[in-house]
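Continuing the series of single-chain predictions for the mutant panel. This is the parent chain; the variants come on the following pages.
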Amino acid sequence: MKSYRKELWFETSQRREFINITHDVDDCLRESGIREGLCLVNAMHITASVFINDNESGLHSDFEKWLEKLAPEKPHSQYAHNGYEDNADAHLKRQVMGREVMVAITGGRLDFGPWEQIFYGEFDGRRRKRVLVKIIGE
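Parent structure:
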């Protein structure tokens, strides 16, 4: 069995942002040479997320509104975590959107259902953060 590891780095210009990283993960799969196996894509920061969904701007806007209702950023004083940092809402949003995704690899391709794509969700941005891509298989 072969194994491949690569870190993808992101620095968003906004506090919250969704980035389609499907092409980046496809590039990793091609580099790996693996044709059958599994691909893990994992946010390596506790205020960021990786998830699979549709690449539709209205849906992303709905995510933003929904997450802000669940865990509003302000007032910062509403959270016990906020003191040195003001990012308690980002931790909660990450918890809802998830830490990682696992995608099957079949015939050298990511084995998605219709419309599925991989996204990096940033909830406390404007600094460099990384995503781990780990691929195992034959």
